[in-house]
Structure formats: structure tokens, C-alpha cells
Amino acid sequence: MANSFGTETAEQIIKEYADMIYRIALHNLKNTADADDILQEVCIALITKNPPVDDKNHLKHWLIRVTINKCNSFHRSIWQSKRECIDDYTHLEAPQQQTVIDEVRQLPKNYRNIIYLYYYESYTIAEIAEILNKSPNTISSGLQRARKKLKKLLIEGGYNNA
Fold it and tell me: Which of 19, 21, 46, 146 is the most exposed place for a label (fewest CB within 10 A)?
């Protein structure tokens, strides 16, 4: 299927949203190389599909949805099940102070995406519900549960001000 916009428009969209796509992919996959692959796949989808380019908000939502879907597909792939993380075999000599984002990454995937979109991308509950094709009540309760789990992780991790 031919694209309804030119290469220049695709390049502009990619330049504008590449950081966001990469952050969401990294947030979901916890690996920079995999996040790079997902960014590339989303760019290919942008070029080969006919996403809504008339409305910036709708385009941004489409890109987020495609990114999350590609991450979910990656998690289900056979390749993913056969891999081992190199971090399991390497140890840092000096422990590094963890950041809140490290704790967010420990949350279950559905909570991670809600927390990330709410706090890091500044979406409202209604917008997140639209992006993830869920009801606002589901997103709201998921956000509450995610906050509780995150608070517990932060307290266990030594963040007493959580």
C-alpha cells in the first residue's frame, strides 16, 4: 500500500517522536539494543502503514500504541525466550545508586506502561485509556495499584521518603 505522505513528512515525524518511541521501548524491554530494534520497526510501520497524520495527538497515540504492541510481540517471540541477559553474568565492582525508573521497570508490564505514560509522558487517565484501548476506570485502578506496588518497591529499596 502506498503511503499518503512523502519521505520528508516521515522523516519529520520520526525526528519529532524518535526519543519518545525509544524511551517507551527501553522502558518496556530494559535493553538498549532491543529498544533500537523496536524504534526501527515503528519507523518502518510509519512508512508502510497509513497512520493518521492530520491530527498530531492522534498520530502520537498511534505511535505509542504501535510501540507498545511491538514490545509485546517481542516479549512473545521465540528469540526472546532463548536469550540470556549478559547482566546475569557480570557484576559491578561498586554498587550504583538506583533511580526511581529502575524501580518502575520492576513493575508488571501493564502497570509500567500506565505509570510511564502518566508521569513521564504527562498523559491524563482518559488519554492513556484511549491509547491502550482500555476503559478510564481500568486505567485509574491500574494507576492506583501501580502506585502501591511502586511505593512498596521504593521502601524495600531504601527510599524512605516514598
Answer: 19
Q: In the structure, what pLDDT confidence band is assigned to residue 52 with cuts at 50, 70 and 90?
A: confident
Q: Into how many domains does the chain fold?
A: 2
User: Both 110 and 137 in a single domain?
Assistant: yes
* CA 79 vs CA 23, 83, 84, 115: distances in Å: 22, 7, 10, 27
Contact 26, 32 (CB under 8 A): yes
Q: Is the pLDDT of residue 88 over 60?
A: no
Query: Could you list the residue range(s) of the whole structural domain that residue 139 is in?
Result: 97-162
What pTM did the predictor assign? 0.64
**Average pLDDT over the chain, rounded to an integer:** 81
Of 28, 62, 84, which one is at a domain's C-terminal end?
84
Q: For residue 48, what are the contacts with CB-CB under 8 A and spacing of at least 6?
A: 1, 3
For position 86, what pLDDT does the model report?
46
CATH of the domain at 124: 1.10.10.10
- Tens-digit pLDDT profile for residues 112-125: 899 989 988 889 99
| 76 plus 144 within the same structural domain | no
Kindly give, in sequence order, each residue whose CB lies less than 8 Å from that of residue 82, ignoring residues fewer than 6 positions away. Answer: none
Q: How many CB atoms lie within 10 A of CB 20?
A: 16
